[in-house]
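Exam revision sheet. Question 4 asks you to relate a sequence to its structure. Input first:
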Amino acid sequence: MTPGEDDVNTTDDAIPCDSAHKEQEPDVPHAQAQVPMKTIENVLREAKMEGDFLWSLFVSAAKSYRFSSILHPFPPMYNAENGTEKHMFALRETVSQMPQFSSTTEFINQLPVDCHNLLSWIFQKPKFELKLQEKEECFKHIRSLTGQVMDAPEPTYVFEVVYDCQEEEKFKARRGLRKNFYAYHGSRMDNFYSILHNGLNGHLNKVAAFGEGTYLSSELSVSLLYSQAGETWSKSCLGAKLACVAVCEMIDEPSVKCQVKEGSTSVQKQRAQASSITDAVPEKYYVVQNNDAVRVKYLLVYRDNSAPLVPQGSSPSSSWVQEHKFPLLMLAYVILLLAIGLANSRQAVKAFTRFYKQFYLS
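Answer key, structure tokens:
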């Protein structure tokens, strides 16, 4: 269930889905983020966990082999002059130089210039804010919103996505008097940087069993199957390897394909049919065919316990090894192949024997 675009025309005669949250959630509990100008010091002092997670999402996309399609928005200071090439080596080098976050003044003063510029850009860019929630209470609220029935693992962290005034009003204007409901969306960890900044894009979805669109489910256990854990930032206080599931808010409109009970048989069939050449969308599934009809409201984050947390004050050498684990493994592999080749070479054995006799037996 990876994250798209479809110019589906919508009307106001939408019918609510079976498993969906039937009542329109009141607007009062959701504050609107003003997203003021933020300094690194302010973010790390007031919202260190949120800042850490936002940076970790960026790092996950930057480290991915799919960076060309998922690292959007891309930091402009790492664009080549021709506008088409990207200085990925320099960007990844800056990422590797980023020290573990601290809210102290010393951290800001000692931050390398490239790291400071990149981190400032990332903290200034969003049209949203991430807010860490009290896990048990918020997760219970989310299960109620989605109508989840089956048991599923609790997340390690829950973040609410609070949009700025412009984005909030845009979504409310589209919704109008229609109801909204909630479901889960699973995707690879390295996709979530783009998902948060650009929304869910149905045309990028490679799982199209019931037609083109963004696939969601009212059951968390289903979406978890598509939430592949990925390496993020090795110095993160959240964990170096995370998985993520989005809790999405949808507008009850015809572009959201799902099973319905109300209306005539033909209307029910049309609402559940995402494509003329596929089967109807089954119960507990949703296929959203218009990007503007869905947005992310919460992020459920799961820490991979096989990747230990980085302790405060960990040595720079160990962090460097973790950041460069893959090239070091490749280097070790090449050295091993050379050693095997030399061991099987008669000329190499003779040369080594002569060297040994000359310097150690003389």
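Marking note for examiners. The longest strand covers residues 241-251.
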